[in-house]
Amino acid sequence: MDTSPHSSSHFSSSPPSPVALTLRRHRRDETRRLQEQYSHGRPYPGERLCGSDDCLLRCCCVYKTTGIHLPWYILIDRDESEDGVPVKDILTEFAYLVTTEVWPSIEKQSDVLLKARSIEAFVSSPPVRAAYLDFRTVCQKNDFDFSIESRLREALSSTMPRFRDLVTELDAAEQDSQRIEMLIHRHLQPPQQPGQTSSGRPPQWTQESCIMRFLLTSELWRRHGERHMRQRNWAWEEPWMVAELLSAVLLNYWLMDGEKCFAREPTRSSEQVDEAWQDWLDKYPMLEDESDDESERRRVRSPDLVPKPFGMIKGLDLDREIGYVGGVGTAARGPLWRDLRQRHDGDDEGEDDVLPQH
Fold first, then answer.
1. Angle at the Cα of 181 (from 176 to 182), degrees rounded to 5?
2. pLDDT digits (tens, 9 = 90+) for 207-223
3. Acidic residues bias located where (predicted)?
4. Structural domains counted in the chain
5. Considering the domain boundaries, does residue 109 fall inside one?
6. Which of 20, 84, 122, 151 places its Cα 20 to 30 Å from the Cα of 5?
7. Is residue 29 part of a domain?
């Protein structure tokens, strides 16, 4: 056998190059970081909003970030609004006001701050930001003009009771995966009008269906996993709470957008999405499991959140406006949509047509 150094059977045992080692280490670190994100509540890319593993609808594959599913933009916060107000303070104030309006029975200030922190985490989460960008894009493509605040409020007021009913239906169909899939597909897509199939015209978006898509996408993210919902303190008690809170979130985003609080960052790779998730998870860690050490739980459950003075958003007078900052309902007057209908129709609506008062 030829054992000379030039033999074809001789293999080099030289170590990998520094570049190869660096790339290998980078891939390993990225894989480990992604697994940590998934373990802390980020949905896996293969998860669909409707729950069906076979669904190919893009509106259900919102957690994918590769290929055609890579979002065009990521919504990021500017440091300040156009009036010089820190954006993080506006988000904190909104979360605090929502908490005190929807849960007025919470007495301990530490519990109020904890609940407010959980609301702020939800509002700031990547799926809600993506849902708002989607809402804005669909509205622009269909020439829906919400430049006047009252138009969005009125559209929200007509959509809220239908969304409340949808949340109730989803709760009732918890064990019926086919019905859940049908309900979700029906409300994430433009509505099919009578006779539209035979005419060959594609379904058309309406203002209300755009709003419904945002509300439902955000709601399906909120109820993503029982453990995750519990550790995020997102287990809101009643469908009317869900309807009013998510409507408030959308209106608050719209108000902040008008105040130039956000910027759209072009997305060139899925790594940017990974970074956005990591930033959010670092800023808003989950609560510990009940089985964990109590002192450790208290350490995580002590948010650094201090309510800021009211009236940060230009043109919003809390003494005259209906609702909390960005919101559509108050404890004193009830949801805005009911208030509007009473002015038009009087007080003779059926009890089934109104959201519960809070």
1. 100
2. 999 999 999 999 999 99
3. 347-358
4. 1
5. yes
6. 20
7. no
